[in-house]
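User: Can you fold this complex?
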Amino acid sequence: MQSSSSRLLLCSSKPNSLFGSAVTPTLPSSLRFPPLSLTIPNSTSSSIRLRSLRSSEMASQDQDPRIARISSAIRVIPDFPKPGIMFQDITTLLLDTKAFKDTIDLFVERYRDQNISVVAGVEARGFIFGPPIALAIGAKFVPMRKPKKLPGEVISEEYSLEYGTDKIEMHVGAVQPGERALVIDDLIATGGTLCAAIKLLERVEVTVVECACVIELPELKGRERLGDRSLFVLVEAEGA
Amino acid sequence: MSAYTHQDPRLHGIKTKIRVVPNFPKSGIMFQDITTLLLDPKAFKDTIDLFVERYKGKNISVVAGIEARGFIFGPPIALAIGAKFVPLRKPKKLPGKVISQEYILEYGRDCLEMHVGAVETGDRAIVVDDLIATGGTLCAAMDLLERVGAEVVECACVIELPELKGRERLNGKPLYVLVEYFEI
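Assistant: Here's the predicted assembly.
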């Protein structure tokens, strides 16, 4: 596993050291794990708001001790898929049975008591993290796929890429109005795919409670693209 | 063998949740859609439990899942039995060094890739996919694992289409499925 000096370990100012670091990196207030705060409504789903992760009223907490191992287990591949991109490879995380289990546990602990009935996972790496979370919290798993992969009736949402557009699809009838959903992917970069996934769910009147990713590339401002929708991540990294 | 022959009471619930979509992706094909199974938390959990009960305690160190629907079933099994999850992917998706195995389709060829170093000599592996049809993809998956010195203990699928004779194509490698679908 590479020790990447370009990766921020949840905002530690020291380079990420795989070996011998006795210091636990600390989190900025924006990334400590706040409890999900629900305003308990009697009204419909659209009025439910979670306290934003950026709220400065968050109580300070130490970083969960499982995070360091998770972060170290992620491999960075330079110049993939093209020059200048530092690709965050989660496959090495999946080879570390403890770190993979811890990853899932961190999400499950956050969501298990939140009445989530839908976990939507974005093809293909969202298919790896979404189902274990769904199974543990008793929710449905709904795959969000590239065009023409899902059989039967679908709804589609187009979104912009750096050059051109792409499309994401979901089955008609997979979700019902009023359901509470999470959207899962391995990583958020610009936020384009996640936004499209959120739109698909909101078009059928599902409440997207939060987006959850293992990794965020903050420089690409995906969090801003999600607007006032909540985003929860375990690790931050530099994209290039 | 299939679990269905032993008629575990959970199997009926699983089988009825699989949706058949006619004429997808092309005319004449009755597509076995597992997404409806995933919408039923109990049936999805039962599916995983049936595999976990079979493989737990058998020293399986690798669960290899075939893109993309094998990514849905493989990881929960891997997590429950304490094995690594290794994704087997279409070309150019995995970053870094890979090994490739080509296989024949009805028309043309395709290719499956695995990361170098993900699997080691002596690893005991199962290969997971949602369905076995002709067995071409599963064969390519087994080849990849065996080329790096792993032992493929069994292939595991939710659904088998026995009329397509995929089981025979596996060259004696055991195959375990939960449900069989016959067109006739």
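Chain B has seven helices and nine strands. The beta strands of chain B are 19-22, 30-33, 62-66, 84-88, 98-104, 109-115, 124-132, 151-160, 175-180.
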